[in-house]
Amino acid sequence: MTIVYDDEPDADEIPVRRIRFTINGAKKVAEVEPRLLLAHLIRQGLKLTGTHTGCDTTNCGACTVLVDGKPVKSCTMLAVQVDGHEITTVEGLATASELHPLQEGFKEEHGLQCGFCTPGMMLAAKALLDHNPDPTEEDVRWALSGNLCRCTGYQNIVKSVLWAAEKLRS
Amino acid sequence: MSQALDEIKIGGLGASRKRVEDNRFIRGKGNYVDDIVLPGMLHMEILRSPLAHARIVSIDASKAWEIPGVHLVMTGEMMATRNLAWMPTLSYDTQAVLATDKVRFQGQEVACVIADDPYIAKDACEAIDVTYEALPVIVSPAQALAPGATVIRDDKENQNDNVIFHWEVGDAEGTSRAFAEADMVSRLQLHYPRSHPSPIECCGSIADFNRATEKLTVYMTTQAPHIIRAAVALVAELPEQMIRIISPDIGGGFGNKVPVYPGYVCSILASILLERPVKWIEDKTGNLISTGFARDVYLDGEMALRRDGKILAIRMHTDSDHGAFFSDAQPSKFKIGLMHSAFACYDIPYAHMISRGTYTNKAPGGVAYRCSFRVTEAMFFQERMVQAAAVDLGMDQAEFRRMNFVRDDDFPHRTPFGFLTDSGQYGACLDVGLKAVGYDNFLQQQEEARSRGRLLGIGISTMTEPLGAGNSREYDILGIKMFDSAEIRVHMTGKAMVRTGARGQGQGHETTWAQIVSHELGLPADDITVEEGDTDTAPFGMGTYASRSTPVAGAAIAMAARKIRAKARRLAAHLLEVSEEDVEWELGRFYVRSAPDRGVTIQECAMAAYSNMPDGMEPGLQNQSFYDPPNLTWPFACYIVTVEVDPETGVWDVTNMVAVDDCGVRINPMIVEGQIMGGLTEAYAMANMQFITFDAEGNCVGSNYMDYLLPTAWETPGFELHSEIMTECPHHPIGAKGIGECAAVGGPAAFVNAVMDAISYTGVRNVDMPMLPDRVWEAMKYRRDVSGAPPVLTDE
Q1: Catalytic residue flag (residue B371)
Q2: Which of A90, B105, B376, B399 lies most in the core, judged by the most C-beta atoms within 10 Å?
Q3: Binning pLDDT at 50, 70 and 90, where does residue B329 land?
Q4: Residue B303 pairs with which residues in a beta bridge?
């Protein structure tokens, strides 16, 4: 984030670190305060607002992104920790012409209502399907147990993931 | 031969149409408040009180002002100079915006900082030095009402105790007589614990005051933008036409986003003072400890019974804990909301209720969390009392309910507390539920299991609840009547746009509102867009909560569409060169009665409205409707749960959950089922784990998601939904009733009744929610009731 301060004596004491990373396939360089959270780098710095912050305590999972393919709650990871790593957010799921089967699945099976938890749910589900293409309902429930939804009651989210798994297999 | 369109194919009534709003949400392209960035925008953070009750001795913000990037620090003292230190609540009380004299609950807003970025604003909040002098803390009505209790609201003239209201309803004399004649009296005392709606998205706002135009635009997380506009006009004394409230996508509401919160007010004042946009985004702890809680009511209930199982009368006494400011977000004239809708599905001649409201040192709110204003408590109390009475009588719990149900041919029916129910098939719903769960078979298994030391239980909850406030005679918010509105514009090419005064938060309005228009006008739903939430463009309405969108705004849509169809008929007569009386309607087209092949489509009529109208006809094809419902809608539900309790640990597992919902006509069955499953999950959460409590010093236990437990996909059981029974709402234009909240309202009692049934051998009458394993274990081990009331400070 670029912040312009009034030129006061303390202003030049703000520490900044330069990091390089890949997000949704694009290579980036950023100068960040060491305390900057990854979620804020993604939302404010990169203007990718599909990653939501819900709880700030690693519980709700709305901010889930993939770092090197692993689901990570970006509200409690520092931006400097992704130096040299690869990030995938919800904006990286679809291509220009095609939705990811998980995105289709969530629409087909009514796996979302307010939509706030949805990006995190889909990324947690992607991490599951990437290493387990044929999960059971129990596998899905366990893989999503770090993500909260207050609208759906999960039953349709589970169905959505199973729908996507089947489509990916065929 | 009819050339009517296939309604399901065009996405009309009854189609499980896929949701149009999903297209943006699955791409991460929703537009929630925190996603909005305005040029020159600053960020606001709030400093909250760490103590539950204390006098503010001093506030020193000088260090905060020194931090680079800080633009403004606001305190109560500064708000007071602008007459904004206090604001009115929705229940005719006052609430502190920023504390001046005292803090009255933990988490109360004390000061706020506006800075270049949220990190700096947080740093500056920490640099503010507040000196407090602690005062005695009250965390329950029992403490609040004790002789000599500290008066929490000493800011109010003539407030010499902690009582907010003392309210009575029903027939005291008739009830006393019935109790005197009863064969037996069944009594139950319990506490519906404090809970928090806790949408995943917290509250927030961006206030943008433009000095050049004098216009204030506020983007905010509100379920009722028009009410907010009115409130801002009244509180900030700004001209109403200069205020624009925009409620963008909302990440869940559940009642939490109805009230006006201090953060909104502070961001507005800051923007006016700084002439820059100011964004306030609450963190989860701020949301959980300071914004609208729900429930927190104690019941002492009695039921007068005849030996054969007939209920003769009900007596209820409730003590409700409203926190430090009475800001219940409810629009009725009844002090404890619709608590007296209890027992509406039972034919009971007499009832009487006394309700007392108290102040405590807890957060204010009293929101209708996925319910109509205290209906959740009402139905929980009802179904717990019904189960206790069945046990006391030694009667089968299903049969006891059935014998006391209002019969299908007995509508309209006056409920024991005076509501008028209008429709339902209660016995038929119960039958579907009992069959689905395999009731008789289960009772047999239960007995066999008990002989082997396994504890199985079955719980039933049946209820009809009032949804969809108004009517305007009895329901208003600060005098504004509870109607709702819709405006429909049919464009020249036969496409259309709908706007309503409601504001969805995940209910799927953009999908279902189009379906109602489709049903009325025969336009394909895909040709209709829906827009809500902007007070500059939407017609005035009262917003979305209490399951009122379909009953009220949905009805307004149908009525506006019918006005459009009436004009289209005149256009059709003109195009067909016949008189209007000779024109007939079938879905999508008008035709000549004597020559059905001669017709025009609704799209052709739309084109004519702009290009070929008859002489003297006003051009265009649009209309609006303000709908004042003649009554509430009364959906019915039967929820049945089976559980197994571990006798060693008190842990209980749901083995089956059956839900039978009769909500009248289902506009979109897929969405209705989604609403029911969401509600059942919240019911399970409240029964199992989700509650907010306080220690004796008023510290909120449940101030983050590590302490405030919400079920995940792992814990949440599966649900079996049934829709076999459908009773149309007799007064709604398309026969629909509310549904968004039934399961959260009626569900909790089914889970609790099931666990109580499993441990019925102990003779314990009640274990308060949530039925945590240690509570169930305590009940089994010591054979005593387990209360969930907050602890009381003692001298030890």
Answers
A1: yes
A2: B376
A3: confident
A4: B186, B314
Instruction: Show which of residues 254-293 on chain B sit within 8 Å of chain A, judged by CB atoms.
Output: 254, 283-285
Paired tokens of A159:
């169905």
* Alpha-carbon distance A84 to nearest alpha carbon in chain B (angstroms): 25
| ipTM reported for the complex surpasses 0.90 | yes
The answer to whether B306 is a known catalytic residue is: no
Q: Any bridge partners for residue B673, and if so which?
A: none
Specify the CATH number of the domain A9-92: 3.10.20.30
Contacts of B670 in chain A (CB under 8 A): 110
Model confidence over B246-266: pLDDT tens digits? 999 999 999 999 999 999 999
Active site residue B370: yes
pLDDT over 50 at A1, yes or no: no
User: Which residues of chain A from 40 to 99 reach within 8 Å of chain B, CB to CB?
Assistant: 43-44, 47-57, 59-60, 62, 89-91, 93-94, 99
The burial class, CB within 10 Å (0-12 / 13-18 / 19+), for B695 is middle
Q: Which residues in A lie closer than 8 A to residue B117 (C-beta atoms)?
A: 1, 3
Domains along chain B?
22-30+484-627 (3.30.365.10), 33-135+202-250+257-290 (3.90.1170.50), 370-469+631-782 (3.30.365.10)
* Nearest one of B689, B713, B653, B533 to B196, comparing CA atoms: B689
Q: Where are the beta strands (DSSP E) in B15-128?
A: 42-48, 54-60, 70-75, 86-88, 94-96, 102-103, 109-115
Domain boundaries, chain A: 9-92, 101-169
CA distances from B306 to B179, B309, B314 (A): 10, 6, 12
Q: What is the DSSP string of A13-44?
A: G---EEEEEEETTEEEEEEE-TT-BHHHIIII
Tens of pLDDT, residues B668-724 = 999 999 999 999 999 999 999 999 999 999 999 999 999 999 999 999 999 999 999
Does the annotation count B377 as an active-site position?
no
Cα separation values, B514 from A102, B136, B410, B554, Å: 26, 55, 35, 10
CATH superfamily membership of A101-169: [2Fe-2S]-binding domain (1.10.150.120)
Residue B473 pLDDT grade (very low, low, confident, very high; cuts 50, 70, 90): confident
Structure tokens that stand for B363 in this block: 């957060």
